[in-house]
Amino acid sequence: MTDPVVLISEVGPRDGLQSITRTMPTTAKQGWIRALASAGLREIEVASFVPPKLLPQMADAADVVADAIRIPSITVLALVPNLRGAEAAVAAGAHKLTLPVSASRAHSQSNLRKTPEEAVEEVRRVVALRQDSPRSFGIEIGISTAFGCTMEGAIDEQWVIRLAVMLAEAGVDSVGLSDTTGYANPAQVRRLFRQLHAELGDKAGGAHLHNTRGQGLANVVAALDVGVSTFDASQGGLGGCPYAPGASGNIVTEDLVFLLESMGLDTGIDLEALIAARRIVAEALPDEPLYGHLPEAGLTKGFHYARDASGARP
Amino acid sequence: MTDPVVLISEVGPRDGLQSITRTMPTTAKQGWIRALASAGLREIEVASFVPPKLLPQMADAADVVADAIRIPSITVLALVPNLRGAEAAVAAGAHKLTLPVSASRAHSQSNLRKTPEEAVEEVRRVVALRQDSPRSFGIEIGISTAFGCTMEGAIDEQWVIRLAVMLAEAGVDSVGLSDTTGYANPAQVRRLFRQLHAELGDKAGGAHLHNTRGQGLANVVAALDVGVSTFDASQGGLGGCPYAPGASGNIVTEDLVFLLESMGLDTGIDLEALIAARRIVAEALPDEPLYGHLPEAGLTKGFHYARDASGARP
């Protein structure tokens, strides 16, 4: 068995669950993460190490990480707002950390109460923590509001790339671009990721795209064209950014997997098992809407996975 | 004022309204078509000339065409199932006719009670009608189930192209490809339209794509890459194919215009006027769901149209 061609990083248990007001019980989170791993997801962002008084939905972050790292097939990712959060996530055993850095100064202030440069400083502290740590861990950043901001409108593209270079030089493993607010279009996605690859080489990271204006998968096609091979997505489209008004709508993992597999790009994911995992979310959060076209319409007649391309067609 | 770079052919008044059980009153249809034209749509498929006992929603086809042709800015398109429908549509004054031809033999039988070859024969009769007609009119075909069929599964791509060549040789003006059932993926869209252009040259027509599995705009991006410049879409995503089970979901005109304009491709359409036109549909068909992400999320801050690209950015 070979590695998938495209890596889907499932962000539902963190990004999804922190965007809604109700809290999913810890055992349901653990069951959901196991179901996602069983469906073939190889990377899952499972928790956010923020003070429980700010995000009570994430109060069990350490327990969730501690359980997730016992699943051998997945990379366990945690969001940490700062050095203190990083220490807690590392102590819990997270494999990889991600920190918030936003290209929009207004979004950075309202979301993090930091300038982008101060956010990069915080990243440097976490890189230093890793240098002193007995156990290594990954550090990756997805630059928020990289394609536009509900507060500032257009964001200067050269500034986004400069910020990415600053982060790479700070010592992180990869820097991706996030369309936090659903502003991206395919032409811009191609332009920015091309520049990112040119400047950062193999430190250029993945795409975190939103479907706020229905453009999510269109932007995925554009990103694939310029060599992006890691995509964030959320089961049932749960989540978005609670601090950016109107910025709901992660791309739906189910629809993304169908897109990629139909195009002949192996994701390693089993769609029927993935769709079955929705039941765990629906039972634990009965009032939360779950999105996705594929789960409604079902697989196409004669559908086959990219990895079975040699198999018989109907 | 120059012509738009991309032509959007609005199919809501025909494809949309014939797919639902309720009938929109004639005056509402006329008002909706006028609102769509005022929003900048240059081509509208307004009616279907089928026997009223089969589709009572389209019983007023002649009246709708007669009113629409008085709007100077639009090309008025009508669907006709056969020579008899073509005669009625031409008598009513339609500028352009489209006939159903399906690549899937099973879909062709269940939808048209004809083989694909018999459907091409019917097209030949309409071409002959044009040769004998004092007034000229356009004839274009979009091959249904070109990307797959709910009954047959995969459809042989070489057969689709052979059928397109047969139609071009029959004398129609253009032959496009329709994803009637929401089966298309971007790799396939590129492959098939590339072949279509290679075989048909300037008779290669547009793309009719569905969002049944959430892939509609992703497929548009792929089609743009290989030179497709005409796209069918439906306001509010109304419609689909009533004879292909589960095949709902035209792409939403509002979301498509936003995609294209954001990419810098002029459509000639005003999004605010287009969104305002939804009210006519909502009032005439209060129980009918209207889809679209853009109408929910609103335009992005600092959004500007492709035709205003020289204007100040925020």
- Separation of the first and last Cα atoms of chain A: 24 Å
Main sheet attributes: strand count, strand direction, barrel closure of chain A: 8 strands, parallel, barrel
What name is given to the CATH topology of chain A? TIM Barrel
What oligomeric assembly is this protein in? homodimer
Shape of chain A: globular
**Strand order of the biggest β-sheet of chain A:** 1-2-3-4-6-7-8-9
- Tell me what the CATH architecture of chain A is: Alpha-Beta Barrel
Given helix and strand content, the structural type of chain A is alpha/beta
Biggest interface between chains:
A-B, 44 and 44 residues
- Helical content class of chain A: 40-55%
The number of distinct β-strands of chain A equals: 9
How many domains of chain A? The number is 1
